[in-house]
Amino acid sequence: MKILLELSYIGTNYAGFQVQPNKATVQSAIQDALERVYGERLPVKGCSRTDSGVHALQYFATYDTARAIPTERIPLALNSALPADIAVRSARIVPDSFHVRHDVLRKEYEYRLLNSRIRDPFLEGRVYRIPHILGEHEISLMQCAAKAFVGEHDFSGFMSAGSSVADTVRRVDWLDVIVDDNLIKIRVAANGFLYNMVRIIVGTLLDTAHGRIAADDMAAIIALCDRSRAGFTAPPEGLYLRRVEYGDFAAEQ
Amino acid sequence: MKILLELSYIGTNYAGFQVQPNKATVQSAIQDALERVYGERLPVKGCSRTDSGVHALQYFATYDTARAIPTERIPLALNSALPADIAVRSARIVPDSFHVRHDVLRKEYEYRLLNSRIRDPFLEGRVYRIPHILGEHEISLMQCAAKAFVGEHDFSGFMSAGSSVADTVRRVDWLDVIVDDNLIKIRVAANGFLYNMVRIIVGTLLDTAHGRIAADDMAAIIALCDRSRAGFTAPPEGLYLRRVEYGDFAAEQ
User: Fold this and answer.
1) Which residues of B touch A73 (CB under 8 A)?
2) Nearest CA among A41, A40, A8 for reference residue A26
3) A190 near A172, Cβ under 8 Å?
4) pLDDT, tens digit, 9 for 90 and up, residues B95-110
5) Shortest distance, CA B80 to any CA of chain A (angstroms)
């Protein structure tokens, strides 16, 4: 049978989700924990290749097993075998035909900016701090520029080199810039994301706030499909995979 | 001149504030940072002896120096010399007569309980998790018992052994049990606290929630002044020094 795990993790100590030789990854940590619980090496598939240092508030992974451990016991069993920065939140049986990556309908990311001259020990490695404080005007420029991203566009100008993806058109459902005390949260949902797309969008919005890009030019910049016209790639520590939606599971989550 | 630092820190990696031989403490970390900035060893005084593993959202410390660095530059200079889990939030000059510990009028602590069967990687080391979920009834028992602590009482039944304090009467201004999603926040303010007083109050409230102590008995238990009648000592990782009030600075904070 196929088991679907709902996870959350802090990405700081991992070279992303996917197994890499001689590096700590989330996938290998989960496979190690499964081996301790099931007594055999079970390959794990993940819903997304999150980058080194990126966090997940919600992440899904699957594995196949012939051994029927009651699903309500799986989270506690795996959590006692996992390191403290990864947790299994729930487990359920899914049809064998289910594919944890291909069946994703929509993903939402959140990028957290700390708008403060002073660093916050409690948010170290969990936000990207902007030392020059953004005021209301700068934030309204970001909110204005954000509107241009919503809808179906070729986002090849917002993709880092090194990706072999053929189709670079994605549908962005929302891109919101939310002020929450001294945090600025940028939430973006889409039917899929290109390599580093969220981090380049965030960097471009910050370049807009700092006056290096005009908010009114954003639609034209997207249409140019030229990476050199977009902004910088914001660092990974502010990025969180926030929500992953599947057709049949949408109601249950 | 005397400089007052406002700090915040994560206590996880420190054996409390006060310098101890062969142990990492917040005080020694600050003195190391001051030495890098000022070029000399400057003794630091703290507002409170927080225990090993206890956090501070707000903490005050002072040092004396003859060198006049503009106070607005002190936070950035010290923060670049401090480890990531300690930050200076502000600095100001105070009268030489100011005493950072004796002049405290009121301190507020917050204790954070995670009310969840599943651990949360993002709160690891920053909350005390209760694996058996507390419902509305249990929380109302805690809120009822909490009322008995407010006012001036001899709290010697809520003090760990090892303290040499003579006067064990303290004035508790409020003790609130606040539900915030799956967190339970216990906030207590007083003109002073005995050794481990907050952690024993929290343990006693949890014993009340679990039915081991009757909420109606709390006033009598306080009056007995007998440590063995109070509850267990809750662990340090959920405890935060939240606010420290001084007479002249109250308006500025």
Assistant:
1) none
2) A8
3) yes
4) 999 999 999 999 999 9
5) 10
